[in-house]
Write a structure and sequence with these properties.
Blueprint: H1 14-25, H2 32-49, H3 52-61, H4 70-76, H5 79-89, H6 95-103
Length: 104
């Protein structure tokens, strides 16, 4: 069985394209397309596997409100329980370090 694929065009800063080219030259990927596809797969998989709070942080970082956002969580969740969950999950990290981890 063959899987159909779709063509998706993106514009990227030259610096990122240069980094993709370097990764291809080093043999990490066979092409830019393969590198980009791998990155998108990892992004989607990470988002699908994350908990509600992590998804809300991602939506907040991307400045996307609506269902699943931090504001949405604020309406349905006690802020102190979020702070407690963060402290329990990331006992040695500041909020900046947590956000940096979410951005990966």
């Amino acid at each position: 069985m063959t899987t159909k694929s779709m063509l998706v065009q993106v514009r990227m800063p030259p610096r990122l394209v240069q980094q993709l080219d370097r990764m291809t030259e080093e043999g990490l990927y066979s092409s830019r397309s393969e590198a980009i596809l791998d990155s998108v797969r990892r992004l989607v998989l990470g988002y699908e596997r994350s908990d509600r709070f992590r998804r809300a942080l991602i939506r907040s970082f991307l400045r996307r409100g609506g269902r699943g956002s931090i504001d949405d969580l604020d309406r349905e969740t006690d802020i102190s329980s979020i702070a407690s969950a963060l402290a329990a999950t990331y006992p040695e990290k500041s909020i900046d370090e947590i956000l940096s981890e979410v951005r990966r």
